[in-house]
Amino acid sequence: MMDLFSDYNTNLLPYDGTVLYFGPVLGAEQALQYYEKLLHDVPWQHDEAIIYGKRIVTKRKVAWYGDKNFAYTYSNTTKYALPWTTELLELKQLAEQISGHKFNSCLLNLYPTGQEGMSWHSDDEKALGQNTVIASLSLGAVRKFSFKHKHTKEKKDILLENGSLLIMKGETQTHWLHSLPKSVKVRLPRINLTFRTIIYNPA
Q1: How far is CA 183 from CA 40, 60, 81, 159, 188, in A?
Q2: H or E stretch at 33
Q3: For the whole model, what pTM was predicted?
């Protein structure tokens, strides 16, 4: 579990948002157990995006869970939430305990190797509301995670460790983009759980 004596109150961003990195909040054995369970039991599907009218299927795989059958639309595609599993509820509770925020949904991402990543974007969909809180839990391979200010273009990078938790909140999604850069050096899978709060849902 996390080292309670570490200082987790340092904002990684210089301005216009708040990002807190808590480091590993799961022990190595515990993180491996969750990783193996999610890797094999989650009904992963290749993510899709519609760009300029063209349907793009990614090597990255995703799954969407929630308190109810939430509809979540991004990249011009819509997903409907699956019911929580025991493991996801346990990890959600951990994220809520550390962040002090309640979540009602989770988007899971599976990156098979470092050759799969995520381009610059913000999680600023209408369904999430303004100044949303997102808790990002990483399992598996260590990956670099990058932030870029939308106007000044200033960048900040951090390595996300196995079992670690990152919190994005405040005006972060309004003013900053984030990405998961590709890396030929990373050959192992990474599972990323992004706990979110849907506040507007027309479904």
Answers
A1: 24, 14, 30, 12, 11
A2: helix 28-41
A3: 0.89
